[in-house]
């Protein structure tokens, strides 16, 4: 089977429930080139080395003109690239500014101090399920939990969720490899509209916070002055848009994939119910075994790079298949088995290097609390269908719905 056929199958919706056999086939050749141009890297050590390689760029402006044509990475005047699509030194400056109100060294207890608030949100969502014998974990829990958290953290009114939900879905869908020319054009038009609408919405909130600051990240970004100066208005908007979308899209999948995996492994579910401390290594294993981000398609090369005997030329599009790397038998023993207390679990679930996930500490805590309380309080949860219906997105992979039956809700 050719690499071209494999990439098409990996992104084919029919294979969304289980792409892992295709990744295993892909790993037989660590670096392959698709007919449309991108180079796919699928093995652990090669992916990790590229994530730390300064010759690998996240800025689409470094693609060759031929590779850049027709992509969804072109510059958008409504919402220029956020820092995850930039390289040093601009990436480093903006990430430091965004980190000031979020974590170390300036706000070291921000996530830790949210523990009580997160627990309260989780308890409230589960309490609302009382007197029901059927639930959809996504709609009833996995989506509203991280959305509520990121709204509070940023200072976005929770009642506005209905507006930004559709914009976030459109922006997240743009991560998928493009299809036909017609599909690509339609995707670009939808993306520009969603970015423009989200930018206008956030601009209004930022102006409100500038006039009347509150204890939230939008206010801090709008008023803070540090060694790196201050974000410009458009930088605040692009950063806020990134955090709003990324702050819930991946965590929805992490929690839902986690509960699905536990229900498929009832012995592990029972272990977690008996020992809540297992949640910490268990979430790390979920990030390896069923990662919410399957691939990083937005990279390019700043020079010719030799990877596993293949020369990837300067300016070529590069797809890092992180979900494949995290199941590489050259790095992980028995990689296709879910081992909740696996040791030396240096997975690729949050990336590596200077673009490692900004929100990883919060996502970890959200997933640990959510899964611990779900298995403690849901009485006899059972899957209604397996596999469940999945989201269309191949990059941010997870069930769109997870129907469950329960015998009741414990106190």
TrEMBL record:
Keyword vocabulary terms for this entry: Heme, Iron, Metal-binding, Monooxygenase, Oxidoreductase
Superkingdom as given in the UniProt entry: Bacteria
Protein name as annotated: Cytochrome P450
Similarity annotation: Belongs to the cytochrome P450 family.
Provenance organism: Streptantibioticus rubrisoli
Gene3D superfamilies: Cytochrome P450
Lineage: Bacteria, Bacillati, Actinomycetota, Actinomycetes, Kitasatosporales
CDD domains reported for this sequence: CYP164-like (cd20625)
UniProt-annotated stretches for the region Disordered: 67-87
């Amino acid at each position: 089977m050719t690499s071209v056929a494999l990439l098409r199958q990996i992104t084919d919706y029919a294979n969304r429930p289980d792409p892992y056999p295709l990744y295993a086939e892909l790993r037989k050749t660590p670096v392959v080139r698709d007919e449309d141009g991108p180079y796919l890297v699928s093995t652990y050590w090669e992916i990790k080395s590229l994530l730390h390689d300064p010759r690998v760029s996240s800025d689409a402006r470094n693609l060759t003109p031929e590779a850049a044509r027709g992509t969804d990475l072109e510059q958008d005047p409504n919402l220029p690239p956020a820092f995850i699509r930039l390289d040093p030194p601009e990436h480093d400056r903006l990430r430091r500014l965004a980190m000031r109100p979020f974590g170390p060294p300036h706000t070291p207890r921000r996530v830790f101090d949210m523990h009580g608030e997160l627990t309260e949100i989780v308890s409230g969502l589960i309490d609302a399920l009382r007197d029901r014998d059927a639930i959809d974990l996504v709609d009833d829990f996995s989506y509203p939990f991280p959305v509520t958290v990121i709204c509070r953290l940023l200072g976005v009114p929770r009642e506005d969720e209905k507006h930004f939900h559709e914009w976030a879905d459109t922006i997240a869908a743009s991560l998928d490899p493009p299809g036909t020319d017609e599909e690509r054009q339609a995707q670009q038009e939808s993306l520009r509209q969603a970015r423009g609408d989200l930018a206008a919405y956030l601009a209004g909130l930022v102006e409100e916070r500038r006039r009347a600051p509150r204890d939230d990240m939008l206010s801090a970004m709008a008023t803070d002055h540090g060694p790196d100066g201050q974000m410009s208005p458009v930088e605040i908007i692009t950063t806020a848009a990134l955090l709003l979308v990324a702050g819930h899209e991946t965590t929805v999948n992490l929690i839902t994939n986690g509960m699905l995996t536990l229900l498929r492994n009832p012995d592990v579910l029972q272990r977690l119910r008996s020992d809540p401390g297992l949640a910490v290594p268990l979430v790390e294993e979920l990030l390896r075994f069923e990662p919410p981000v399957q691939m990083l398609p937005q990279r390019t090369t700043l020079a010719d790079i030799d990877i596993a005997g293949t020369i990837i030329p300067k300016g070529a599009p590069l797809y890092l298949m992180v979900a494949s790397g995290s199941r590489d038998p050259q790095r992980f023993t028995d990689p296709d088995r879910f081992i909740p207390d696996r040791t030396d679990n240096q997975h690729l679930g949050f990336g590596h290097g200077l673009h490692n996930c900004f929100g990883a500490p919060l996502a970890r805590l959200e997933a640990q609390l959510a899964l611990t309380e779900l298995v403690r309080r849901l009485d006899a949860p059972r899957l209604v269908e397996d596999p469940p219906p999945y989201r269309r997105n191949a990059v941010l992979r997870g069930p769109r719905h997870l129907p469950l039956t329960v015998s009741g809700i414990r106190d």
